Amino acid sequence: MGVRRASYSIFFACIAATPAFALAADQAPKVARVAYVDPYSPSSTPVATSAFWARLQELGWVRGQNLIVETRWAEGRTDRLPALMAEVVAQKVDVIVTRGTPATLAAKNATSTIPVVFASMGDPVGTGVAASLAQPGRNLTGLSSESSELGGKWLELLQELIPRLSTVAVVANPESAYVQNIRNHLESAAKMRGLKLWFAEVRELNALPTAFRRARHQAQAALVLADPLMFTYPEKVTKLAAANRLPAVYTFRAFADSGGLMTYGADTTTLFQRAADYVDKILRGAKPADLPIEQPTQFKLIVNLKAAKALGLTFPESILLRADEVIR
């Protein structure tokens, strides 16, 4: 089963602002207050977040005119999320936008009335955020970044790159709700592909060096599952994989940009643009419970030739021909 190629264009330029009085729905507020709460850092996905605000401006919501923005960053510390969420709830915002499962769960616990749009998270049903994808049934809706196919795809890519692969080290935080939900999918996919998984547990930043060192002795390749800890320090993670000469596949492009070997996952830019559409609908009167949760249909495979060369590896044509982007 091949990697699906994205066939869309991303627009970053901000178009001329639409005046507040030109907004289509009569119930749209003259000035909207939108909060954005992120468990990572501002540098983690600057393209995706920029695309979110650009899309909102295309829809007529302009900072300094009819849009007030409250932004909070947890810098990889999920324990800060409840306090950050309490801050934006106290600001009486119209919509809260979250990124990732931890921030969305924090929003769920903080308010049952303020609409919440998650721009990217794992399994919203499995984590209890929504009753179903078609009918969320609460004050939360948005875009899921998870697909049941992902576990098999990651392992497939590693097997194509390393033909005699037998064991894959899964470097992950076992306390992450995302990791807990995807683990069963991974184990099933590994069994189908005749692979063994060895879990390298990372609960804090200081545990990363030991995790990669042990993974080098237990496996021939690694899968790094991104949670706020990993995503806040992608360069540190990819450097440790390289130092231990461990070929690794990652879940988001930030790791490829930081020197990682290859990444495969939902295109976060598209997810953030769609999240802006959801925010616009809610500001115009739609209810989150009536907006179905969307699952990703566009995925990107990014390969890093420089990283492969440093590991003494050569990407096979089967991977290069499916790659959406090649970093040289």
Tell me briefly what this model is.
The chain has 328 residues and is of the alpha/beta class. The protein has helices at 46-58, 81-90, 101-110, 150-161, 177-192, 208-218, 228-232, 234-243, 253-257, 268-283, 305-310, 317-320; strands spanning 32-38, 67-73, 95-99, 116-121, 140-144, 167-172, 196-201, 221-224, 248-250, 262-266, 299-304, 325-327. It has two domains: 20-146 and 267-298, Response regulator (Rossmann fold, 3-Layer(aba) Sandwich), CATH 3.40.50.2300; 150-265 and 300-327, 3-Layer(aba) Sandwich (Rossmann fold).
Report on the architecture of this protein.
Helix content is 36%, strand content 19%. With 328 residues, the protein is of the alpha/beta class. It has a seven-stranded mixed β-sheet with strand order 7-6-8-9-10-11-12, sandwiched between helices. Strands 2-1-3-4-5 form a five-stranded parallel β-sheet. It is elongated, with a radius of gyration of 20 Å.
- pLDDT below 50 for ≥5 consecutive residues: which ranges? 1-25
- CATH level-3 fold name of the largest domain: Rossmann fold
So, CATH architecture of the largest domain? 3-Layer(aba) Sandwich
Number of domains: 2
Got a strand count? 12
Structural class: alpha/beta
The separation of the N and C termini measures 26 Å
Q: What share of the residues does DSSP label as strand, in percent?
A: 15-25%
Q: Rounded to an integer, what's the Rg over CA atoms?
A: 20 Å
Q: What's the arrangement of strands in the largest beta sheet?
A: 7-6-8-9-10-11-12
Order of helices and strands: EHEHEHEEHEHEHEHHEHEHEHHE
**Fraction of residues in H or I helices:** 25-40%
Let me know the average pLDDT. 89
SS summary, helix count? 12
Q: Give a short account of the largest sheet.
A: 7 strands, mixed
